[in-house]
Amino acid sequence: RMMQLRCLQPQDAPLMLEWMHDPDAVRYMRADFSGMTLADCERFIAAAQQDTPSLHRAVADEAGVYQGTVSLKNRDAGRGEAEFAIAVRRCAMGHGVAAWGMQAILQLGFSQLGLRRIYWCVAPQNVRACRFYAKQGYTPLKPDPDENGLLWFEVLNG
């Protein structure tokens, strides 16, 4: 399956809203996406063109159709680190889209942005996400959740 990492485009907004309104996709996310509107998605896409302080990219299929968003949030150039985030549409789940998107954005972060560390967290109740990260070869930094009930992961460059 040919995938592409590209800038978010205005026509991605309705498909972005699709995962935002999917209760299973957003149940364990820190932000509340259920109240988002098409206009919110359009504003997010417009703001994402700046690439600062967060970088957001569309994971698209071979036809260029939006499948999800991968992000390097809160980039800190001085510390050489950023927080990874991903969300994909239900129709993309189980097809390697998230795995491809994750590897593509990590590679971009390390090779093009010169990051040294990329980190993220997940709620242990988010079994689908925990299984996904394990399948990708990532284990939490500590086996038990932190004081906020989150498991933390990191990837170091080199």
**Average pLDDT figure:** 95
Strand order of the largest sheet: 1-2-3-4-5-6
| General shape | globular
Low-confidence parts: none
SS-based class = alpha+beta
Strand content: 25-35%
Helices and strands, in order, run as: EHHHEEEHEHE
Total helices: the number is 5
Integer-rounded radius of gyration: 15 Å
Fraction of residues in helix: 25-40%
| Largest beta-sheet characterization | 6 strands, mixed
Span between N and C termini? 28 Å
Properties at a glance:
158 residues; alpha+beta; 6-stranded mixed β-sheet; 5 helices; globular
Could you explain how this protein is built, in words?
The protein is an alpha+beta fold and 158 residues long. It is built from five helices and six strands. It has helices spanning 13-20, 23-26, 38-48, 97-112, 127-135, and strands spanning 3-7, 55-61, 66-76, 81-88, 117-122, 151-156. It has a six-stranded mixed sheet with strand order 1-2-3-4-5-6, sandwiched between helices. Strand 4 (81-88), helix 4 and strand 5 form a beta-alpha-beta unit. Helix 1 packs across helix 3. The longest helix has 16 residues, at 97-112. The radius of gyration is 15 Å and the shape is globular. It starts with a strand and ends with a strand. 25% of the residues are buried.
List the helices and strands and how they pair.
Blueprint (H helix, E strand, L loop, with lengths): L2 E5 L5 H8 L2 H4 L11 H11 L6 E7 L4 E11 L4 E8 L8 H16 L4 E6 L4 H9 L15 E6 L2
Parallel strand pairs: 4-5
Antiparallel strand pairs: 1-2, 2-3, 3-4, 5-6
Task: Provide a concise account of the structure shown.
This protein has 158 residues and is an alpha+beta fold.
